[in-house]
Structures are given as C-alpha cells and as structure tokens.
What does this fold into?
Amino acid sequence: MTMRRLEIDRLNVQIGDVHPVRDVSLAIEPGQIFGIAGESGSGKSMTALAVMGLLPGGAARTGAARLDGQDLFALDEAAMCGVRGQRIGMIFQEPMTALNPVRTIGSQVAETLIIHQGMSRADAAEIAATKLDRVGLAAGRVGLDRYPHELSGGQRQRVMIAQAIALQPALLIADEPTTALDVTTQAGILDLMSGLVEEGDMSLMLITHDLAVLAGLSSAIAVMKGGWIVESGATETLFRSHRHAYTGRLLAASGHAPARPAVRPAATPLLDVENLHVGYQTGRPVLFGKGAMTEAVRGVSLAIGAGESVGLVGESGCGKSTLARTILGLQAARSGSIRLGDDAVTGGAMPARVRAGMQIVFQDPYGSFNPRHRVARLVAEPFHLIEDAPVGAARDKAVAEALEAVGMAASDAGKYIHEFSGGQRQRIAIARALVIRPKLIILDEAVSALDVSIRAQILDLLAALRDSHGLTYLFISHDLGVVGAITDRVMVMKDGVIVEQGPVADVLERPDHPYTRELVAARPQIPPEWTARDDR
Amino acid sequence: MRPRLPVTLVAGLALTALFAAAALLSLVWTPHAVDVLNIAARLQPPGGDHLLGTDHFGRDMLSMLMVGARTSIAVAIVAVGIGMALGVPLGLLAAANHGGVVDDLVMRGNDLVFAFPALVIAILITAVFGPSAFNAILAIGIFNTPVFARVTRGGALSVWTQDFILAARVSGKGAARISLEHILPNIASLLIVQGTIQFSLGILAEAGLSYVGLGAQPPLPSWGRMLADSQTMISFAPHLAVLPGLAIIATVLGLNLTGDGLRDHLDPRLRRPS
It folds into this structure.
C-alpha cells in the first residue's frame, strides 16, 4: 500500500456544545490537488485548523490526522511547531493582515528559513530571493526590501505563497486563497499554485466556496455541509453524477440566473451621465495649495432607461464605487453632468426630493447597519428624505410592508441587526432601499459577500422586486457571472473609463475590448458538459 | 447563557461603590460632626469611641474621610463632566470635518493644551482666582477636555468609514445628525471607559491641589489636605497620614479596575467567545 500524503481519519471537533467538524475522513495523495468545497459554517476551515493544531482555545478534537504516516495529533506543541511551516505550509484568505506591515517581504520569507533550518541571514536571504522569484516577484522588479503596503493584494498573496513554500513543505493548505482577489489576479495565483504542485512533490489542500475554481484545478473534491462531508470523489465524476442533493443545489446555485422580466426600454433615460470626471484628494493639503489629486473617473458617459437593469463590471480600483457615490450625490464631480429623470444631481446640498429617487445596497451585510438601532429604525431611515413622511402607525405599516416585500416578517422590525444572518441582513438592506419607493437602486457588490445558495435567493428576490416595483438597477460587481445573471446590459470599466458596453450575451460571448476578453477568460468556469443535466 | 462579569470589573465596582456609599451617607449622617473641635479628644489612635481615631483638632477621622470622599468625588465628577461636555462635541466636530480646517484647528488646539503642564496651569488658575474647590474643578475640567476630544475623534473616525454612515448620507442626513444618531451611540462605551479613567485622575489631581493648599478650603475636609496637615505629626500619629492615603489609593485603584473591566466587557473585540 502506498503511503498517503495526508490521511484524516474520523476527525471530530467540538467547541462547547458546537460540533463544527463531524466524522471527517479524507485522503490526499502525494502531488494531488484536493479541493474542499462548502459554504460558510460548513467546517472546512476548522478541518484545516485541526490538522495544523491551530484550533481556538477550548476546542477539543478526536480522530487522527497522519502526514506521511506520522500521527500529527500525537505530537506535542513543540514538535507541531516543527511541522508547521516546515512540512505543512498554509495560506490564508486575507493577504492584507497575514503579513507583518513593518518588515520587508524579503525578511519575512527568510524568517521561516532562519527559524526552521537555523540558516545564516545571508543564506536565507538568497533562498528567499529565489522563492520570491519563483512566485513571480522577481528581485529586479519588486525587490526584497519592499514593505507589504507597497504591494497589491495579488502580490501580497504571492509573498504568502513564497513564505509557505520556502521549506518545500509536503502539504500546502490554502484557505480561500483567492477570494479577496480580482478575477484576473485570481487566475494568476491559481496558475502559480498548480505549477508549484506539478514541479515538486507537494500536495495541495484547496479550501474554497467556489466550485468553479475547483473544477479547473483539483483532481478530487470533498463537499462539506454542517461539519459533515456530504460527498467526495474525483472532480469530474462528482460534477457529472453528484449523488447528494446538496452538491446539486450548490452547483445549481453557483450558476443561478433568475428568470428575466421582459425588457421595455423607455424612450427617455432615467439616469443620464455625461462626460463625468471625478477626482479626489490623495494627499493632505500642503501649506499653499491643495494636495495631490487622483482622477478616479475619467470621462464616463452612460444612460440607463427606466426599468432597465444594467451591470457595471470592473476590478478593484477601477473607479466603479466612486462613480456610484457620485451618481448618489455623495461626492462632487469635477466636470460633466448627471441627470436623474428631469433633475440634476449636483452633490453636496441637493434637494431631498432628488435624493429620494435613489437608494443603495452595500456589499458588507455586517457594516451597513448601525448595530445600536432596531430594524424598524434602520429601515425607516430614508424617510428622512420625504417631507410628509408617514409617522406612527403609518410608518410602522410602511416598514412592515417593505420587510414583507423582501421576504422577512413584519415582527422582525423589533429586533436588532445582530440577530440576523448575512443573507437576512442583505434582505433588510434591500427593504431599507425600497421603503421610500425610489426609482433607481444601486447595488454595489450587493451579493459578493454571500454564500452561493443565499446569493441565488437574493438574485431571485431582486429580479422579482424589479418586476413588482418597477425598479431600475445599476448593478456593480467584479463578478461577470453574477452580472450576467441579473442584468440586461453590461458596461466594463477600467482605470476610470468605460471600455466596452452592450447586451450581456454579446459582451460575455463576443468580448471586443482586450480587457474584457481577459476578464472573460480569467473567470473560473465549470465545463458546461459536466453539468448538462435535463432534470434540473 | 449570561456573559460572566470579569473579576477586575467586579472588584473595581465594589471598591468604587464603597466610597460612593460613604460619600452619599455623609450627606445625611456622619459618626461625629466634622466642624466641631474637641481638643480634649485630640490625636486619639484608632479604636474606641472614634473608630479610626481623631486628628489634632479632635475631629473624628472616619467622619472626615466620609466627607472627604464627597469632596473628591464631587470635584472629579464635575471635572469629568466639563471635560466631556466640551471635549466630546469638539471631537465629533473634528471627525466630521476630517482633513479640513476645523479638524486641524481643534486638534492643534488640543496639542496646545496638552503642551502645558496641567498642574502648573491649575496652580496659575487658583493663584489668579483664589484657591477653592470650584477653581480646582475648573482647572481639572479644562485639562480633561483635550483627552475626551482626542478619544472621541479617534473613535468617531473609524465609525465614519462604515457603510451605515454612507447609508445615512444617502438618506440625506447631515453631519450633525449623523454624529448624534450614529456616531455617538457607537463610541459611548469608549467614552465611558475613558470617563472612569479620567475620574480617577481627577481624584488624584484634586488630592494633589488640596495637598498644596489650592483645592478645597477649610473647614471643608479633603483627603489631600488631611494628608498635608498630618505631615508634621507623622512620627507620633501615623494614622492621620495612612488613612487618607489609603482612601486615595483604594478609590483610584477601584476606578482604574472599573475602567479596565468595562473596556474588556464593552469592547466586543476583547471579549472572549462565551
């Protein structure tokens, strides 16, 4: 019998009364990429932490994890320190916080070598340079003496990988390594990781919520839900003939597109933006004169008809959020004009009546509510814009109606926001946007932070509301797939300019601009023939 | 499951409550009158009729300490009140104008006040307006202001970056309204914690000012002046110095423990999952 690289045998994790991991068994071969898929709370990260011996205090684990035949759970903390970093490397989701901001990237990679192998500083620096070179951060271009804040998110993730592979570990655990990154950056990181597995004898445990990422990369997948592995097997087989209903639901949800209402383009546009330029100050004002200016939006013109749903796609820093804030009148434009219906949007002191025509739903379901207020007060906040806003019982009724329209109960109005899950909070955010019946709703990455199955529900809700309330959407996202599912027309933005726009199908299938082509190509996709089933 | 209160918080609250109760009780009852001299019973050691002994005028030490607690606590409360009443609005104003001229003005003004040694200014104020408990309050209050302004601004700046502030702005709310409705409730715990710490510093400052004769004036008893009066008699009546000293230490310790405990208890980032 050949030796497995990692063998987890009936792993259970218990924290108080909670069992985040239940009877998990899996085996990873040398040189294999093994995917663990699941939604938040499925126990996939806890499984990795249990293997690493990094569970939070108060957690108990039973079962066994063998690395090349050695039982990791039998090792004491000192011996485990030798295993971590040396034989198991780990990469986390958040490259911003996982690196020490006050030390250069070269010294952080070298540190691992100095600690584990007692290398001299000079030797370690030399190896660190070759490792950084391997992950695409050549010394000539990036330099070992750079600090993390001088790098982009993708570059930081590459530093993390260099650190993790510095000692040529037998197993690399990557927990959502690309979730915080743009699609084109994600494609590069995934390429790099599969290359590293191929050239060494390393195995990779890739944990992600995104089945499409695994489809192109891993040879086997375990799907987790509620702490259990509900299904596991070779990737293609699993996609083609998933036996467990949950896998099917997950697959269906990740490619979910709600039924589209028929589009009736209006004669006059609801929102008309012309040659808009927006800049903001990046430096503190100096003694005489202003600080440095950055131009985030450089000459954008767009029109959205009443009842239309338009997508705006771009990667982080392309200016899409600045554009949204300017349209909402939260930020003044340097030049150009914005019209909502017959009214000019000017920013600053704008009539409340004009503001009342627009609302926004944010990405983060946790940060977009004041935790000290009850739902009734949160949802009613936009009434501030209306002169003869309903008060008392009439206001309660309006709030209840808005909550019921998004699938919540009227009685939820008396609760605080922390009593709700992420998906429920996003519904409440939509209720808040809906309560004064605006014409335009801007959805700024409104489903990006949600699990796929919740995301599918919210997309359905948005489609239904558009139909029933006659809403117009500007849907901002970095995710082409989501935009394709909910919008009629899509605009692609890069460096403050809209580089391409057109009907969704045209842009996605026949991208014209090189950047759009790059975006479409970088998108991880499940091969359509794997999921071609007629019963769903 | 009810979250358990941290030990430091319970101990701190108990100490603080003890002195607060003594101060309140002194309003209606003390074992002996503190404004009546009884030279026949002077310098009695603790025990007997006078539980904690008497001072060089024959006044009951326990009664003096109780009334002294009232003085100290009253001075500190009003001083912290002044600091909050001025500092919190300034801090909110600065945060709302972050990066603007008002922000700079407020913060540089803060730096200016911080640059003066507090005690020296307090001495100056009392030297100009005459020593009294009221002037001590004023002096301590002025130096509390920049502390609260800074804490408020720091806390408010991080709340301002949250999405729900943007949502409020989309709802047409102005900076003043947002500051009151959204910012203040979310930094309240920060201010409470800072308040308890400033409270203990206020008690120390009042004791220090009274010690040099610039705080509460006779016949009003004050811990600081009790310490000062006892100096010459420390060799034969050490309880005169030890008791007010212990009172100051215990109160300040109690308040600091309360502050630390409250911070751990109110700040969800420091709270361990229970």
Observations:
- The first helix of chain B runs from residue 7 to 28.
- Confidence is low (pLDDT under 50) at residues 269-274 of chain B.
- The radius of gyration of chain B is 22 Å.
- Chain B has one domain: 7-42+49-270.
